[in-house]
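Course assignment 3, question 2. Fill in each field.
Student: A.L.
Task: Predict the tertiary structure for the chain below.
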Amino acid sequence: MLTVLAGGVGAARFLEGVVQVVPPATVTAVVNTGDDFVLHGLVISPDLDIVTCTLADLIDREQGWGIAGDTDECMQWLGRLGGPTWFKLGDRDLALHIRRTALLSEGHSLTAIADQFRQALGVAVKLVPMSDDPAPTNILTPAGEMHFEEYFVRRRAQDRVTGVRLHAAGLALPSPDALAACAEAKAILLAPSNPVVSVGPIVSLPGMREAIRSARVPVVAVSPIVGGAAIKGPAAPLMQAMGMEVSALGVARAYADLIDGIVIDQVDADLVPAIAALGLQVAVTDTIMRGPAEKAHLATVTLALADQVRQARYEPAFDANPGAG
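Answer field:
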């Protein structure tokens, strides 16, 4: 069993690599739900949908979200009728949100719904929401506090970030399946996702860090920061707002109490000594996931580092002469 803590686009692409090198049915992705919100009366789960549709090979790869070849007739009519259109929803995409909302209203958990959707779309990887409770991520700005999607999509991440409030709806607990995914894992990987608003909401759930540590298995992260910049999304201003250095070293420091090792890009090779000084093992490679081969390579390097950690930290050395001494 391999458990991957996942956000949206970067995590989905990383998982595409993982399933090329290990059997998909042995992988569980614990997915961030801090981006979930309600619009048009519908419950939208952006990261869950991105991961699901990517692994189902349905994703619009140019955008990184939405369904390939989708139409927008409903969105056009919503706009004509005065409805908000800042969050683009394709016609087929809407079916996910309509069905999710209906099932939630019938009392089904988000975990059960995610499992139903991934099976319906032919995804072998088990997809687990981090929580069945509402756990929105809010961004603090001079213009006021707003949901992450409003900050990121509607306002195009133009506001100065003064803080981030995780689990803004109040107490949220890890889903039972998320805790089980940690307890049953042979290794836990932190995908190259935003450390503040993608992985952060997952590991900040009460008891989640303890569940990861108590698993006593290799925990390895992949840095989403390359050469001091994020590959995609607003990681830089969010990290800065949280007092984090925008670098692979900053990511390593943020995760230092949780991980055993980290994979960084070759352009950041000069950071290896500083990261190693944190007590972490480091692998250096090309982390840019341009296509299937690069995705598989990154997954292979990450799993190899997890194996190195396992041998060094979690498997006792073989005693060739146990009776000696």
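Instructor remarks: The radius of gyration is 20 Å. The mean pLDDT is 95.
Grade: pending
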